[in-house]
Each structure stands twice: as structure tokens, then as C-alpha cells.
User: What shape does this take?
Amino acid sequence: MIRVAVAGAAGRMGQAVCAAVEGAPDMELIGRADPLLGVTIEEVLPQAEVVVDFTTPDTALANALACLRAGVHVVIGTTGFDVTQLEGDHGANAIVAPNFAIGAILMMRFAAEAAKHMEKAEIVELHHDRKLDAPSGTAKRTAALMATAAGGAEPPIHSVRLPGLVAHQEVILGDVGQTLTIRHDTTGRESFMPGVLLAVRRVGGLEHSPVIGLESLLS
Ligand SMILES: NC(=O)c1ccc[n+]([C@@H]2O[C@H](COP(=O)([O-])OP(=O)(O)OC[C@H]3O[C@@H](n4cnc5c(N)ncnc54)[C@H](O)[C@@H]3O)[C@@H](O)[C@H]2O)c1
Assistant: This one.
């Protein structure tokens, strides 16, 4: 059994992750850290093998470094912080993924492939209006992958924040006389859970750390 603690356990994603961990036959949920629950990450670290962090852009890095210094592996879904700060030999591993949904991983892969063949592209990302960061981590990751694949500049990103939305992204590519649109819609947070559980199972055995992006585990 993998002993898992969740940081941000009272949040929208954190609650879904707690339920997914409790439903996994090979995992045990040993702690829920969140200021709203009156539990700090330091309190759950001594019992944990892996921490899953879905908190806020201004707390995720400090949480992750606290885990790594304690020898606890960390899976980070929080977006909007500087992941380069996780580099170095910490004695424990980190996986950081801006999107744990398989459809979003495929959208990024297809967009990178299409960017090699079409002249220009722009990204439109649409999220609920309580999301703290803009542009989204998924859009920034998509733009970076497209630029690497095509050997050019990163496509511009447009951010929409409205009630009623969950998480959506369109990559629109244009060329002479044609456009191609690749779109992904997240309609429920359960879409992220298989990817989160995969990362929890794999983080302890990584050959290098941090691993950025769930696609690194799938390919
Ligand atoms: N990687 C993905 O697939 C994915 C998917 C959805 C959302 N996200 C990201 O996950 C993050 C959380 O999103 P959300 O919608 O659940 O937000 P949310 O506001 O509902 O939840 C965040 C929670 O973190 C708690 N928190 C704040 N500081 C903390 C700390 N120091 N220790 C522990 N908990 C702390 C808050 O009290 C809150 O309950 C955001 O950055 C969002 O962009 C990532």
C-alpha cells in the first residue's frame, strides 16, 4: 500500500483526489492537509510516502520543497509557479503536470504534430472564473511543445475566465485557405484522477526528477 497525503484536500481538486485515493486498492489516504481543515503539510509528512499537491500558485513550491526535504515524493498538479526551483538532488522525486487528463495530453501531442505542418497557430484557453493563474499551465505547456516541435516561436495564448466553464482549450492552426482546430473539454474533475493515480504509483521509481508532464510517463 502506498501511503498518500493530499495537500489542498478541501479544494475542488483535492476533494476529488482524496476520493480517488480512497478508492484505489493499492493506496491508503493517511492525511488531508489544508488550512481550511486546520492541518498543515508538516503534520502529514511523517506518515506519508507520496504527497499530492493541488493548492495555490503561491504555496505549491514551498509545499513541494518541504516534501522533498523530508524524503517524501510529491505529485504536483498546481499550476502557475516556477518548476525550475524543483531541480537538484533532493533525495525524493517530483512529478509536475499541468494537466492529468488523457484527452488533454493527446490534444498537446496532436497540436505539436500539426504545428510542424501549418504556418501559424493561436491557443484559446477557457476556465472557470475562480482559477487564479492565467494563462493556464496547460496552454503554456502546449505552446512550449508546439514551438519545440516546429522549431519556431511559441503561439500566442488567449485566456477566457467565465462562470459555467470547467477547463477547455482550443488550438487553432491556420494556413493558406484552411484552418485546423483541435479542442479539448474537461466536463468533470474525475477526468484527472487516472493520471493522478498513475503519477502516485510511478513517482517513487523515477530515473530523474523532476518529471514535467504526464506524457513523460505514458510514452
Ligand atoms: N494538473 C491538473 O490536471 C489540474 C487540474 C485542475 C486544476 N489544477 C490546478 O490545481 C490547483 C487547485 O485547483 P482547485 O480548483 O482545486 O483550487 P481550490 O481553490 O478549490 O483549492 C485549493 C485548496 O488549497 C488549499 N491551500 C492553500 N494553501 C495551502 C497550503 N499551504 N497547504 C495545503 N493546502 C493549501 C486551499 O485552502 C484550498 O482548499 C490550481 O492551481 C489549478 O490550476 C490542475
In short: The pocket of nicotinamide-adenine-dinucleotide is lined by residues 7-8, 10-14, 33-36, 41, 54-57, 59, 63, 77-80, 97-100, 131, 192 (CB under 6 Å).
